[in-house]
Amino acid sequence: MIRQQLTQKQQQKLSPLQIQQVKLLELNSLELENRINQELEENPALEEDPDSAENEEDEAFDDELAFIEEGSNEDFTLGDYLTEDDIPDYRLQQKIDIPEGHREIPYSEAESFQEFMTDQLRLKHLSEEKFKVGEYLIGSIDDDGYMRRDLEAVSDDLAFQYGLDVPAEEIAEVLQVIQSLDPPGIGSINLRQCLLLQLYRKEKTPGRQLAVHILEDYFEIFSKRQFDKIFRALSIGEEELKSAMREITLLNPKPGNAWESNMDTKMAQITPDFIVESINGELIFSMPKQNIPELRVNKDYGDMLTLYTNAVTKNNSQTRDAAGFVKQKIDAAQWFIDAIRQRTVTLRNTMLTIIDIQRDFFLNGDDADIKPMILKDIAERSGYDVSTVSRVSNCKYVQTNWGIFPLKYFFSESMVNDEGEEVSNKEIKSTLKALVDEEDKSAPLNDDALTIALEQKGYTIARRTTAKYREQMNIPVARLRRVI
């Protein structure tokens, strides 16, 4: 039986302005620039302000950046739109003076790895079919320079994608041609072959011949640094093994790393979202202008909305639809401008809170000065939610006198040392690295010994924590750190 009844419940919904703010908050400077350009293309009511001022006082900026509540749902209220010709003042920083003599230095895009290898392959005068196989193999080489794909799978791909019936044996022949190209070791199927291919090209010396012998016949025990077994198996002295080891350590285990793709090159250009400079013991904070334009609501759209609302035929359905379209575009433009204003305020306040906590690091650049800090600490001091602080710290960078750091670099867990003081895990990692650097490389410290050494310095942590920190710093286990 169908019944009709009334229920009352509370429900929280995000306004369009709040949704805009959440989305924009996650973007870094370059992503924000692209997002603004996209909005300028999609919304004709939004435009750049060519007459905007470039320098603004911080006090005036703070006053103008008050949060703007969403307007009422009345039919058409023009008061919100008639003043949009004012200069938008969501810009945070003052103009940064460029030192005299400073100029931007353009860089050229280098030849890609695939282009470099393909040009060499053309000089081998292969048949058309083998050249296509070679091109496919070059495209299958990973970033480290290895061919880790099974040749049978390559044969299947060539048959399905290019209609080439090439057996794995012929593919192996083409792969050998690729392995003869530069850089030495390229196209290897594993580390052992990579090192051997490089040694084969070098002039023969006793040390290199011994290195080839070790890699060909004793690679497994060599990779485990079991030098005693090598001494017994080859009946050689310590100096001879040191000579062979020296030759091996001069080889490149990742021959493909000498090249970066064009995309990698572009992605490597980090644009900082904040600048914190230490000058004469004082910190100066600014947010770079980048290429983010000043925005305003298009005056013509405001005039158009006035015309439609004052029209005698306002009851006409076409006029109402046109007025509704114009109002929708103006609302969207206003929300976007307000969201950028609020984003700038949030980023500024959050970064100032981080600077306040990590002041010693920004002044001295010493990792030991980084204080324990988590998202909740910033949220409590700045008044924002933890999720907001998380969005601000994601993919944002700060330029300092000591380099460019991601904001997440300043967040770390804490522990209490023997003196009852809270210390950051970065301080513990720094101490751990120093212990590894100073150890006797002929008898390196294992994780148990490192844990004991840290405890003697006042850091009481578990062995598994020591191992975790060591792995995070890409420090190999003791066995692999051993040298003769």
What does the model show?
- The chain has 484 residues and is an alpha+beta fold.
- It has 3 domains: 16-94 and 273-400, no CATH class; 113-258, no CATH class; 414-481, Homeodomain-like (Arc Repressor Mutant, subunit A), CATH 1.10.10.60.
- 51% of the residues lie in helices and 6% in strands.
- It contains 22 helices and 8 strands.
- The protein has a 4-stranded mixed sheet with strand order 3-2-5-6.
- Strand 7 (414-416) and strand 8 form a beta hairpin.
- Helix 1 (16-25) packs across helix 15 (317-357).
- The longest helix is centred in the C-terminal third of the chain and has 41 residues, at 317-357.
- The radius of gyration is 32 Å and the shape is extended.
- The termini are far apart.
Could you outline the blueprint of secondary structure elements for this entry?
Layout: H1 16-25, H2 29-42, E1 46-48, H3 58-64, H4 113-122, H5 128-140, H6 151-162, H7 168-179, H8 191-201, H9 206-217, H10 219-223, H11 227-234, H12 238-249, H13 262-267, E2 274-279, E3 282-286, E4 295-297, H14 299-310, H15 317-357, H16 359-364, H17 375-382, H18 386-393, E5 397-400, E6 403-406, E7 414-416, E8 422-424, H19 425-438, H20 447-456, H21 463-472, H22 478-481
Parallel strand pairs: 2-5
Antiparallel strand pairs: 1-4, 2-3, 5-6, 7-8
Helix pairs in contact: 1-15, 4-5, 5-7, 6-7, 8-9, 9-12, 14-15, 15-17, 17-18, 20-21
